Automatic annotation (TrEMBL):
SUPFAM superfamilies: P-loop containing nucleoside triphosphate hydrolases
Source domain of life: Bacteria
A Pfam family per the record: MipZ
CDD domains (UniProt xref): ParAB_family
Regions that span the bilayer: none
Protein's name in the database: Chromosome partitioning protein
Coiled coil: none
Amino acid sequence: MAHIIVVGNEKGGAGKSTVSMHVATALARMGHRVGALDLDLRQRSFGRYVDNRRAYLARSGLDLPSPDYRDLPEVAQDDLEPGENIYDRRLSMAVAEMDQDKDFILIDCPGSHTRLSQVAHTLADTLITPLNDSFIDFDLLALHDGETGKIIGPSIYAEMVWNARQLRAQAGLKPIDWVVLRNRLGAQQMHNKRKMGAALENLSRRIGFRVIPGFSERVIFRELFPNGLTLLDLKDTGVTSLNLSNIAARQELRDLMAALKLPGVEVAF
């Protein structure tokens, strides 16, 4: 069975699509068979990233390792069982189609609460939650007192993850490995960064996730999207020398992939 990686965050602008594309492509480049789905049926940021990649490869004649991205299959209303949700059927069909011949299935969720996102979280073997390194986004995980820093209670999103864990336990499935990825780390504001790190470590022990570093804020990520490229594709597209920022970004990706601790993955790039 494929190992399912879900990238979930109910706030937009945390870099989910960038993380999804880089993780999926890195796995493909390391020789793994990777399927990919985008559950944001309206925005399709991850899907458009893949579309851009396919168009670029067609134009350039290159054949770069890529995830096998698919749209959710269409289902006729008449084909549903009484009381069955159409989105449940579409997602289960998509996963079943890839489950037999993929090592990994990466599912990118929308930046809002939807039925598809809720169901996808129950499927997650690994859950990656990108989080901007700011207390503005800390609310995604927990309600906290801004003056004392004390945790008041779990957020709606944390409760959804808890419910997904409970459903998996009832079904006899292995626990979700929940990874919170500190994204868009800045070189400045060291005091805020330390406070954020301490708050996340404290919360991680209370609600059960791991904290790993993600990507710093870099121009290169905005430049890669139009052609559907990732940091690992640059040399194959004629970039013979990387600047220091690109080299540092590549190291961040290497560290991220190692920290995920995905089964059967030895990071080699």
